């Protein structure tokens, strides 16, 4: 079996639905399981529809309805194909115009309608074209999560249930991406872009031979082509390299996607529905990867540094545990950490909850917050075997007068991350790409 995940831009209109159906049909011998995102723009529309409902407005709902009807028309499918979903959505919004709820639970329920409709439509299209297919809500075929709405955690026990429900399928299952359900049967999501992660979880559950992420670019690029037009596709990446890149800002994959595939040793391919013949990027275990010093540069703007300065760190144990407990309690994840005996620097990717955290940290030292920073991350397994590579990298930046605030390289030596000013970030990426690629 293989899992094929298609993103929103791959089903943005009737024509793209037809192209996706062709791609699926070209792989029928591999027994595909399809995981689908919402039609492009629909998740945003749904989020808007929820906030509009609070003010008794339904403009976004109408747009969503019109968009799906137009796609059904273009595909010559029954106009009532997603009427049940539209009706349920409209009723939920009507109820909400009175209750005026605006929390993650209702948001997950509402925003999930996009995947429910797109998947139902694709499955109906395959059936119309003579292919046996069924549409499934991910949570109904066993994808269970905890109840942390908006950013749910997958429950490992789901693997066996998904395996039982899907492994023997003699039809093409089309499954909603984005999230699953909790133990009460409520819709949960893995946050924006979560469909990649669903694909990887389904693939790991059925132990598929491959997980394909179909998107609108030719795989993972050496860097963001909007910053460096010469950026190229990276033919092969190791799981570890891909995980670092997804985490540090390469937008192609949801950061959690790599882990399930890596645990079960399933190759992940990133492919392009706009250029189906392009080989894209294959992500495999490290041992199979050809060497190459640096593979990619990713950058993430608008990160914030929190600096904690205190002599209490000197020779004390338990200090870091106390500091990170504050982050833990506030459910705030941190990206990069550097420490000396008297100073601890931590980066976070938004200012959300930061004032509260800073106030709580005051009891452990002097807190200083630096905003408008960017994280740049250079990834490549080959860096380990290349002495002097860091010297070269930083002397290039030095020549360009780039000020560096923090540097971090883990013992695994497959990535070097550093913090620069936001305004320098694009320049850093350009200069390094030119020097090393
Ligand atoms: N439709 C959801 C989003 O836009 C999930 C996804 O596309 O992966 O975030
Ligand atoms: Mg995506």
Question: What are the SSEs and their pairings?
Answer:
Layout: E1 2-6, H1 14-25, E2 32-36, H2 42-54, H3 59-74, H4 83-99, H5 104-111, H6 113-128, E3 133-136, H7 158-166, E4 172-176, E5 179-181, E6 187-189, H8 195-206, E7 210-215, E8 236-238, H9 239-247, H10 258-263, E9 268-272, E10 281-284, E11 296-309, H11 319-329, E12 337-339, E13 343-348, H12 354-361, E14 366-379, H13 389-399, E15 406-409, E16 415-421, H14 425-436
The structure holds aspartic acid (ASP) and magnesium ion.
Structural class: alpha/beta
Q: Spans with pLDDT under 50 lasting ≥5 residues?
A: none
What percent of residues are in strands? 15-25%
- Give the overall shape: globular
CATH topology description of the largest domain: Carbamate kinase
CATH class of the largest domain equals Alpha Beta
Share in helix: 25-40%
Estimate the mean pLDDT confidence. Answer: 94
CATH architecture of the largest domain: 3-Layer(aba) Sandwich
Give the tally of structural domains.
2
């Amino acid at each position: 079996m293989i899992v094929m995940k298609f993103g929103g831009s791959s089903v943005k209109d009737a024509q793209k639905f037809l192209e996706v159906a062709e791609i699926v049909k070209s792989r029928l011998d591999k027994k595909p399981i399809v995981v689908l995102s919402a039609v492009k723009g629909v998740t945003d529309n749904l989020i808007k529809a929820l906030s509009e409902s609070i003010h008794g407005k339904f403009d976004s709902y109408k747009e969503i309805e019109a968009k799906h009807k137009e796609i059904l028309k273009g595909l010559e499918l029954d106009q009532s194909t997603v009427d049940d979903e539209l009706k349920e959505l409209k009723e939920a919004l009507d109820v909400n115009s009175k209750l005026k709820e605006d929390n993650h639970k209702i948001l997950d329920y509402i925003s999930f309608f996009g995947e429910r409709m797109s998947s139902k439509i694709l499955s109906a299209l395959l059936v119309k074209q003579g292919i046996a297919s069924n549409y499934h809500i991910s949570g109904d075929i066993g994808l269970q999560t905890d109840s942390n709405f908006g950013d749910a955690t997958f429950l490992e026990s789901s693997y066996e249930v998904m395996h039982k429900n899907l492994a023997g399928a003699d039809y093409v299952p089309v499954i909603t991406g984005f999230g699953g359900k909790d133990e009460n049967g409520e819709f949960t999501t893995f946050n924006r872009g979560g469909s990649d992660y669903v694909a990887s979880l389904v693939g790991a559950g059925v132990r598929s031979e491959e997980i394909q992420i179909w998107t609108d670019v030719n795989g993972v690029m050496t860097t963001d082509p909007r910053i460096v037009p010469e950026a190229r596709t990276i033919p092969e990446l190791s799981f570890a390299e891909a995980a670092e890149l997804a985490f540090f800002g390469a937008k192609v994959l949801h950061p959690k996607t790599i882990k399930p595939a890596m645990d079960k040793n399933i190759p992940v391919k990133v492919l392009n529905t706009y250029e189906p013949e392009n080989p894209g990027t294959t992500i495999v275990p490290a041992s199979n990867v050809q060497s190459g010093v640096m593979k990619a540069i990713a950058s993430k703007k608008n990160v914030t540094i929190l600096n904690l300065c205190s002599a209490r760190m000197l020779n004390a144990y338990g200090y870091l545990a106390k500091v990170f407990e504050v982050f833990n309690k506030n459910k705030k994840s941190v990206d990069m950490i550097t420490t000396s005996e008297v100073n601890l620097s931590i980066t976070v990717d938004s200012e959300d909850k930061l004032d509260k955290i800073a106030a709580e940290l005051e009891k452990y030292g002097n807190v200083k917050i630096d905003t408008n920073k960017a994280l740049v991350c250079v990834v490549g397994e080959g860096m380990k075997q290349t002495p002097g590579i860091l010297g070269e990298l930083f002397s290039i930046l030095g020549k360009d007068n780039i000020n560096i605030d923090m540097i971090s390289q883990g013992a695994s030596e497959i990535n070097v991350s550093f913090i620069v000013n936001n305004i320098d970030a694009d320049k850093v990426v350009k200069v390094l790409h030119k020097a090393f690629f």
